[in-house]
Amino acid sequence: MPIRDTDLIQAWTQVLTLSQLKPGQSVTVLTSDNTHPQTLRCAITAASLMGANVCRLDLPPVNGEKALSRDPLAYLGTTPLTGNPPAIAALKASDLVLDLMTLLFSPEQHEILSTGTKILLAMEPPEILARLVPTEADYRRVQAGVKLLQGKRVMRVTSAAGTDLHLPLGEYPITAEYGFVDQPGRWDHWPSGFVFTWPNEGAAHGRIVLNKGDVLLPQKSMVTEPITLTVDKGYVTRIEGGLDAELLREYIDSFADPEAYAISHIGWGLQKRAYWSTLGLYDREATIGMDARAVSGNFLFSLGPNNEAGGSRTTACHIDIPMRRCNVFVDDLQVVADGQVVESLMQEAEVTHAR
What we know:
The protein has nine helices and 20 strands. The chain has helices at about 5-20, 35-50, 85-90, 105-115, 125-130, 135-150, 245-255, 290-295, 345-350; strands at about 25-30, 55-60, 95-100, 120, 155-160, 165-170, 175, 185-190, 195, 205-210, 215, 220, 225-230, 235-240, 265-270, 300-305, 320-325, 325-330, 335, 340. Helix 1 (about 5-20) crosses helix 2 (about 35-50), helix 3 (about 85-90) runs parallel beside helix 4 and helix 6 packs across helix 9. It starts with a helix and ends in a 6-residue tail after the last helix.
């Protein structure tokens, strides 16, 4: 059901307030051909009503002839900012960038963040944004997840379907996504609500069994039959199964890049207001699947780049795979049990947001 502008303006106001936007600060709204017009006008209205100096930077899309999908994450690497110093300078000069275009995994995003500019990505349809508008409670819940992951040396994931994956940790930082940007140089994504890190380079090993109902993104499809992935020395070395496995293998091979098979970020979802079922309720081009990425109790892993964590892998292929009904252990501590977050641990680890 559509959302009224007044409701979406209120949602933007809440996000911008949590992001500590102050009167007189500069906000640049970054847009392209895939920007939702209601999201754009409500973002500008909310930021203007809060006293910000707002401008819009609209850039033409790139990579359309290379990508197999219209999803903004279907082909990474170059962006409309690549080789565009004036546009980069404008974003660096902003206190806050509202990314309604998608700069994720780009070197330009890291360059902009390094100046202290904050970047908030928002690409989902307005009704999803309004349903999953972030709160202080989201912050506390995600930070509790971070606390459980801190200092751990290995993540292990199992499932009744046959998954048994070992992921040594410690080489890369922990990332918390809770939907707003409350610190200089911070990036986040609205909507979200999960915690993740990356395994040590070349160390992930074991078996992943994708079962019925697990999700492939950017395909935005649910697995209909088991797919078995063999993982060795940080890479998927074999994909076995029926048609779903064949299509997944074909998609990855289309990039002609062996780095596309590397295990990338790993973690679990914490967003109680997200649902698996919403993926089937939207046209594939209308959503990027953030419900599945964030739904509480998922195990989310990806294939492809690690440059957002400071690594050197910049492959254009990025696949996110949220899995249901997994068990997730960090060292000997079980944080997810058969697809359910262990809430007693979350309550013990919950922290207060320092403002």
